[in-house]
Amino acid sequence: MMRALLTVFAKEFVENLRDRRTLVSALLFGPLFGPILFGAMVSRMLNQSVVESDEPLAITISGGERAPNLSRYLESRGVRLHAEALSETDARERVRKEGAVVLLVPPDFAARFQEARPAPVFVVADSSDSQTRKSADRLRALLAGYASGIAQLRIQMRGVDPLLAVPVAVNDIDVTTPAGRAVVVLGFMTYFVLFSVLMGGLYLAIDCTAGERERGSLEPLLTLPVARGALLGGKILATCAYMCLSLAINLTAFVFVFRFVPLERLGMSANLGVRTALEFFAICLPFVPLGAALMTFVASFTRSYREAQTYLTSVLLVPTLPIAFASIYSLKTKSSLMVIPSLSQHLLMTSVLKDEPIAPTDAIVSSGCSLLLALVFIVFTARHWRRESMLG
Amino acid sequence: MIEAAALRKCFGAIEAVREVSFRAADGSITGLLGPNGAGKSTTLRMLYGVLTPDGGSARIDGLDIRGETSAARAHLGVLPHAAGLYGNLTARENIAYFGSLHGIGRQRLAERVAELARALDMQSFIDRRARGFSQGQRIKTALARALVHDPANVILDEPTNGLDVMAIRNLREILRNLRAQGRCIVFSSHVMQEVAALCDQVVIVGRGSVLAQGTLEEVRDRTGSATLEEAFLEILGEPEGLA
Q: What value of ipTM does the predicted structure carry?
């Protein structure tokens, strides 16, 4: 039994090592897709936010000569003003075409200002463009600061304590740790890790079942004096091996990518060193047989390679469901959640990223439940393999 | 020796095999002849134990294929209708994989594969990957795979399908050699000439039952027909079925 199992394992392992499609998906696309996309996305996000707070705000101002004091105030706050006389229609056009932010000072500004009546200005911006919306927000904050300064002066001149006009003082206390802040960004990285685990075994699971049947090699195989459990065991084991390989490549790539992504520039620290990667590997290991058993189970019921491919692609989405569910309801790590595979791995990996201690019972429940479910799928698949309908 | 005793098999409401009994002796070639859908493949599949009969039994060298499955299978080599190879493995690896699953040791296996490669004239492609094989090369590899454990009994389901004339002649030669080695060979075909050219015994199957069996002469004499072809048509009663 054991010998046959190992024979099947070795054959499936070697055969798939020679299959370009398997190799590309299991050892290249699957494991590297996450880190590459992730690295690119995070660096872009970082660059953007760094650029936005550091770079001077550039504003086109029309009628600035009517509000010299305001212009000086803005310039003293580092705003680069570009004066250009524009009608409101021109301004709209300019914003729509060039994505600029235009500040319009209308002719009656000075008169109303002097009469101490609300003096109008217009901020022309496109709020659907996130870039200009941020610029417009910064401009609005500056204008509000200018207005409140003027208001306080006016109140003071009338002999009233300006603090009366500030009934509430709002203070922000942000308690996110640098690592915690990174988790918001790194939250979906755990999905990429689980995705790479499944991708690693996808084509093997298909090839070992639906592929074997479609090729016509299943029937000769089933005429051998070998227990079908041994055949199935060897195939699932080979699938697991590729999944582990894919996971290892994936984590290595993540470690590598994080060397180059400047998370510290945002005041974040990502604990993604070799140690974290090893912890991730240990956390995901019980998920490997579960994924292999699940995919083999699904593929065993399909009639052809194509059909198996269709169904298994949706299996790839299965681990997202609990994770998405958890983020919608913003579930915190709780021991009761450790019974749900994929979610438990997600939560444990998140804890590692946050540098939080992991309760040993949580780790045991997480791996125990995943392995148990794997066993259930293996038993059901084995039962199906004993049926005549396996021949297709 | 291969024995089928009152084999019966239904798929839902369809009775694919009603009653098939025959005995194939060692050192002889037995041909299962019948039109498409007569129940030949189903019968063979019950003989090599991937289908469970709804009635009757099958024995390989006296071993029951259901009760003593592993032992019976060790005495049996099978070339099913769909005899696919692993395209990413070489012919040698394809054969060795099955040998290894039969529990043959590494040393003995290497010798046996070399022996089969010689006997089946496979040396020119034995170390090539099976992906680009011709139909003849495929059949040879699949046959070598079926013979790797040196079985006393061989079952072949429509082995000549898709082969060209040369390959068919080759296969006939191989089967005659296997017979000369004292093996019991059962093969199915819907091609009458195939059976006529090779068989010591013929079993004519139609609509799930054995319609006639015996040597070629016996079958011909029984119907009083001048030729084998007329005899078949007479027995089947449906001339359109045969190729």
A: 0.91
